[in-house]
Amino acid sequence: SRARKPLVAGNWKMNLNHLEAIALTQKLAFTLTDKDLDRAEVAVLPPFVDLRSVQTLVDGDKLRIEYGAQDLSTHDAGAYTGEVSGVMLAKLGCTFVLAGHSERRQHHAEDDQLVGAKVQAAYRHSLTPILCVGEGLEVRRAEGHVAHAVAQLDAALNGVKTEQAKSIVVAYEPVWAIGTGEVATPDDAQEVCGAIRVRLAELYDEEVAGAVRILYGGSVKGDNIAGIMAQPDVDGALVGGASLDPVEFVKICRFGE
Ligand code: PEP
């Protein structure tokens, strides 16, 4: 048996139209059984504009899948044109919110300090942050990947209290594996996820380190998830491309079995 309940989260990114978002949520809800959802938590992370519809489906049909957002503002309200706050996401019934996805770091110049502020904003509204960390190809080639992930973790957890830290989800996503079809080996995933857990014990204590779920992300598919899930410090997956295909995503939620 596993020490932690695995989590599989589907990051839809900026994909699907409104009807497709509803159809995908319904297909997942029809296909995933109680047994599946006893074994693993499953969450979808739609674009902001589809959160309301997903909420209506989940509430109306008492679905056991969860949902969340791909980003949030560091502020709670005010003159921040185009931003969406944790207050708003909490009102929409979100459980999770991504913080520091590599695409935000790359295309929106999010640095560690900003990502840390987003983690704080999530906690202010009882949202569970899914903190994304991971190195690019150059850092990997220079063997700096463990230090890189640990430094991003340290920065984002600055000011996060022990009680809060217990509930965080960390996703190790090597940038070179995101959307490229190039998946990290199970050993690669374990190396960094294991180092993240060791660091959590140093920053907090063994209880926190033992409670936090650490996901792997990067070209996860139905036929490569089993090896990744077999690693002791990998507690699930953050899935991009394959989360748009209900058959593939359900396979991943079942760990390829
Ligand atoms: C992601 O965006 O978090 C991700 C892991 O994408 P993909 O599965 O497409 O590599």
Automatic annotation (TrEMBL):
Active site: H101 (electrophile), E173 (proton acceptor)
Pathway the protein acts in: Carbohydrate degradation; glycolysis; D-glyceraldehyde 3-phosphate from glycerone phosphate: step 1/1; Carbohydrate biosynthesis; gluconeogenesis
Top EC class for this record: isomerase
A GO MF label: triose-phosphate isomerase activity
Family of the protein in this entry: Belongs to the triosephosphate isomerase family.
Name the UniProt record assigns to this protein: Triosephosphate isomerase
Top-level taxon of origin: Bacteria
PANTHER family with a match to the protein in the record: TRIOSEPHOSPHATE ISOMERASE
Organism of this sequence: Sphaerisporangium corydalis
Pfam family, one: TIM
Annotated residues for binding of substrate: N11, W12, K13, G179, S219, G240, G241
Gene3D superfamilies for the chain: Aldolase class I
Chain's role: Involved in the gluconeogenesis. Catalyzes stereospecifically the conversion of dihydroxyacetone phosphate (DHAP) to D-glyceraldehyde-3-phosphate (G3P).
CDD domains from the UniProt entry: TIM
Catalyzed reactions: D-glyceraldehyde 3-phosphate = dihydroxyacetone phosphate
EC number(s) per entry: 5.3.1.1
Main location: cytoplasm
SUPFAM superfamilies, per database record: Triosephosphate isomerase (TIM)
Subcellular location: Cytoplasm
Quaternary data: Homodimer.
Keywords of this entry: Cytoplasm, Gluconeogenesis, Glycolysis, Isomerase
